[in-house]
Task: structure prediction
Amino acid sequence: MIQYTPPMESIAQLKALIRDVPDFPKPGIVFKDFTPLIRDPAGLALAVELMVNPFRNRLPMGGVDLVIGAESRGFIFGIALAQALSAGFVPVRKPGKLPWKHTSISYELEYGHDTLEIHADAIEPGQRVLLVDDLLATGGTMKACCELAAGMRATIVGITVLIELVSLKGRRAVEPFGHVHSVLQY
Result:
């Protein structure tokens, strides 16, 4: 499908803006904090460009109709990517946040389960969608978002994330849905 490798100097510039926070949210976890990156105008612009680049004017049979992002960090990049692609944005929310008829999916997390919801009329069958989030770890949240979109008969053109934690193998969970692009791998 789409092959894109960002320039190494761009990757180094973004990685310099990611802060490691040890033992957050639990002991033994090193949290990848991207808030310094989104605070930096050049860093934010570069991150958005590198996330969207594989999907801009490179897709066979048209572009992207909708960008789908999960609450809450998927909203940060999702709206920016939607604007860059001249596409609409669809939020996927936690239970009780959507004011209209919705469809939901429950999924397993490493230590429990969660539920996500989307408006029932958010996607028309056949619309081309790009799914976005800040981070791909085990893939549970992104897989749930893909299942919601697929259940609404969307055409998933790809998945893009800023950060992928490669050792957690989340890519395996979502690759069946479409091309997975991550800008930074740890």
